[in-house]
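Deviation from plan, reported transparently: magnesium ion complex.
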Amino acid sequence: MSTDILNIKSNEDYEKLNIAKDVIQKGELVLFPTETVYGIGADALNDEAVKKIYIAKGRASDNPLILHISDISMLNMIADNISPLEYKLMDAFWPGPFTIILNKKKNIANVATCNGDTVGVRMPSNMIAHELIRRANTPIAAPSANISGRPSGTKLEDIIDELKNKVSCIIDGGECDIGLESTVVRVINEEVHILRPGKITKEDIEKIAKDVEIDKHILSQLDSKEKVLSPGMKYRHYAPTTKCMLIYGSDEQLVLSKFKEVAMSLKESENIDENDILILGTGELIEGLKEFQTINLGSKNDLESVSHNIFSALRKVDAYNAKIALIEGVEPTGLGLAIMNRLIRACEFNYIKV
Ligand code: TXA
Ligand code: MG
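Because the crystal trials were delayed, the predicted structure below was used instead.
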């Protein structure tokens, strides 16, 4: 497959997006940036095109996709019976890193929605994404750009080898601003359920809606028989091949001591040395652990930079050939909840709270 790479640096380059628009309209796949993570996009209303996304990612066929729109008139093509509270939420958080699960318009986007009654919709604020959807003149179905189970892609250099042979066109729009996927919500009986946390936090949503619930699966493991509101929760996600363990707590000194204690006991019980242990942590923690290989996730006092760095950091883990990666967690409130939701899955729920 010959793949076009379009380098978009400023709005003067937007004309190049007509090449990507043609690819979408022909029913092929485009790798494109959004403000959250890169996406693999196809015309959401073309079932044959959307099937190609599932094949490219190796994605489970019961895991529906988010439909991306460029303006509110596109909403009527895909969703129905929208409630006043749902409109209020879209009005507050669009365009932006916010996905809402709505009632689906009958008989459309069957593959993208896995033949379900609902549809996840998001209006991205990234101008390249916006221009692509506007020019294609159709909602674009797009999951995060990664092979299923791998960390999402936030810059092209991290994912190009993995995906270049699977799409017909690649748009390079630089690094994604946020670095974590959108907040996903569903309104049930006037209550807003957060199914996946993101940059738009519970506190942000509480300014718009009275009742906001965080789904219990956000930080805890699913029972195999449990029914979930969002199928994405069921699947292994974000994990490097290297075994990972998460350590977190609110007392910095206790957390540092725990890292040292765990490293010491691993060295004794598994007969490994400092070089076999990789630490992913905030700059503040890493200061105290210089004898190990480290990846700096950003400052403890700047969760936006941690969220920006996290997927790229997780993608680097395997290159260190460590036997284990010890990862520092953050306080699971505000944006920290979204960071912890990704990290706890990267560690496959292997964690210690101190
Ligand atoms: O920021 C994002 O949301 C990125 C960019 C590309 O927009 N996209 C993204 O897509 O993260 P994906 O497919 O990796 O994650 C979508 C999540 C999955 O957990 C899926 O189960 C859930 O949204 N989802 C999509 N449609 C749904 C629906 N109708 N009902 C319940 N959950 C849904
Ligand atoms: Mg994903």
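The longest helix spans residues 252-269. We consider this an acceptable substitute for the interim report.
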